[in-house]
Design a protein that fits this description.
By secondary structure, this protein is an alpha/beta fold. The chain contains 11 helices and 8 strands. It has an 8-stranded mixed β-sheet, with helices on both faces. Strand 3 and strand 4 form a beta hairpin. The structure holds adenosine-5'-diphosphate and magnesium ion.
Amino acid sequence: MTTQIETSMKNYVMDHQRLKYLFFGGKGGVGKTAMAGATAIWLAKQGRRVMLASTNPVHSLSGLLGQNVFGQPTAVNGVPNLWAYEIDTKDTIERSKQEIREKIQWFLKFADISTKAEDFVESATMNPAFEESAMFENMVDLMLGGEYDVYVFDTAPTANARRLLGMSQVYSLWVGKMLKSRQEARSLRELLSFTKKKEADPLMDYLVSFRDRMGKAREMLTDPAQTAFFFVTLAEALPIAVITRFIGWFHDFGIPVGGVIVNMLIDQKQVDEKSPDFVKNRVAMQDRYMDDVWQKFEGMVRSTLPLYETEVRGVDMLQRMGKALFV
Ligand SMILES: Nc1ncnc2c1ncn2[C@@H]1O[C@H](COP(=O)(O)OP(=O)(O)O)[C@@H](O)[C@H]1O
Ligand SMILES: [Mg+2]
């Protein structure tokens, strides 16, 4: 067992020149948001145009950066080449509902069904999966926009991320099936109609464009040259167990894992015999769990970061963290 970093975060990024989509996953509170901010700033300093985005309905980028970045891409003060953006999920959910309402209305008219569209709209949109898929679409729209060189996502808890990514596969299957039956229905209708004129079919157009977007998203998200998920952990049992599970899932889904980052390590040099028992115990525990980390994530550890004397907030502190992350 090697107890040192083989490929560092910096080398990983250098070795993946086309890397465009970076994600951070892990248990709540391990430092994902801070890590995303530090990474985005570091990449912007390398001269890349960087978008730091959050699709999570519980946003924390504005707090992290000390400036309001809600609702639109906003240039980050004091960091050239960096924009941050907390996506307004409420707004997108409303817009998706409206879109679905129009589709359903069109379809009910098309199929000669006299029911209020609202009943369908409610059942189609009143579930948590709808919110998740709206968030996923937000992310995909941003990714496909292609206005930036690099996108760093402050992800929702990773269980969601994995489900969302898995959903793109389901979408693709589902839309494929829908399209096939729509095409059959349409050709039957054309066959039965006396005019040869092709009818407009907004539902079909929508499904085709939806499938194409999802297909592109999947392609991007499963391409190790463009995408990397980094998993953040502490030297503690629970966060290690969480990312072990995530890494297994991601492997199964063919989503590229960039590596593991260990955060909040107490600096051994500051601890000696005179230190309080509390601190000595924490350090002994940390040592034990680091053995686990090196063993479980062999060759995957990219960086180990110290526990700082304060929380990580503001550009200066994030820059300091970035330097430690990309040594
Ligand atoms: N290395 C560190 N040293 C000290 N505080 C840290 C460190 N990394 C993160 N923090 C702090 O820990 C808290 C949780 O970090 P955050 O990035 O919000 O976690 P997550 O996004 O995973 O929930 C924040 O207050 C953050 O400033
Ligand atoms: Mg967070």
